[in-house]
What we know:
With 436 residues, the chain is of the alpha/beta class. 34% of the residues lie in helices and 22% in strands. It has helices at residues 15-29, 56-66, 68-73, 84-96, 112-120, 168-171, 180-192, 214-222, 243-251, 268-273, 280-293, 312-325, 351-374; strands spanning 5-11, 33-35, 44-49, 78-83, 102-104, 125-127, 150-154, 156-157, 176-177, 197-201, 230-234, 258-260, 298-305, 329-334, 380-388, 394-399, 404-408, 417-425, 430-434.
Amino acid sequence: MSVPKKLFIKTYGCQMNVYDSERMAEVMGGEGYVETDRAEDADMILLNTCHIREKAAEKVYSELGRFRPLKAAKPDLTIGVAGCVAQAEGAEIIARQPLVDVVVGPQSYHRLPELTAKARNGARALDTEFPADDKFDGMAARPKARRGPTAYLTVQEGCDKFCAFCVVPYTRGAETSRPADRVMAEAWDLVERGVREITLLGQNVNAYNGHDGGLAGLIRVLAGIDGLERIRFTTSHPNDMDEALIAAHGEVEKLMPYLHLPVQSGSDRILKRMNRKHTAKDYLLLVERIRAARPDILMSGDFIVGFPEETEADFAATMALVETVGYGQAFSFKYSPRPGTPAAERDQVDLAEADDRLQRLQALLTLQQRARQDAMVGREVSVLFEKPGRFKGQLAGKSEYLHSVHVLTETASAGEIARVRVVASNANSLTGEIVA
Length: 436
């Protein structure tokens, strides 16, 4: 009996990269590879990269440098770079880093077996095309092993919005949607393997058009799957939040009351410079309509401070918008230029001023997040238990609002959903007790 080859994958960035890494592991599983969590034991190492943050490529080169001794000790070790840095810098990676054997973009990873075979024959392999064939069709069916109670499912990829700060349209390509029947087949498969909550993924997931009812129509069909108890989706663009999707939040019981809806800035001048194609008022009115449909919904957002030419008045408009919305969760970042994007060529804000604005914004967002979390004390929530907690007899899970919840219990187990009374609010989680 042959010894299986071992695959080590390190994943950077968003949930879509997590999903892509799972699929790459499945593709290579068909070639006889099993996953390992130790690079030292691997016969193949894959870095699945993200290009959103500052100096992303340099961090990849730094990581590759740590693998040089492994390659020297095991010359047959295959090292690959996948994902968005691979897409943006593929030829440069090949030229600059001799130990890399395979470079593959996020739309071509179904071709990993043939690229790996090419590398084993002594040729370095590069594929950063946007192929006409559907990568999802090119991959074998998922193995029928049991899964944890939650899973990601990519339904949409790419972006046509061309925000001035963003590289996604260049690394992921144009907006495309998977046909609803293929999404449904994958969802059924996940549920059969123990998944109870599915998060639908897309760069602009609410631009999904693979079902004649759009994302709202897909959600309503998914809600009919027995055993699938919870549905979430991320990340949304305000301009694609249609009335059908808003209505679904109020009408589809399995659609959880949590919505990540990035706005980036509260200044109309900066929003225009970002090419966001909406105003602060547009966004606030949209939030009002969403909350009218689902009053208890927890809103999450993204913010960029220090965008080129941002003034203190522009920043004050962002702070005012945050005060108006009241976020339960948020992600905030200091602008960093991405080569090849329009904003990278503009006058940059002083770094010290950008740092100061970020600290002020994060302080406000933290206050809001903590206030929303503290307000849960005394309430009952529905918790899907995902894994053991830090202490004996403790289970950790998520509420419908995506709050982390820890419970001491001798009766529940991972994969179960229970009513829980919240008894304490901690730094980044809630403590609860199961309601008898």
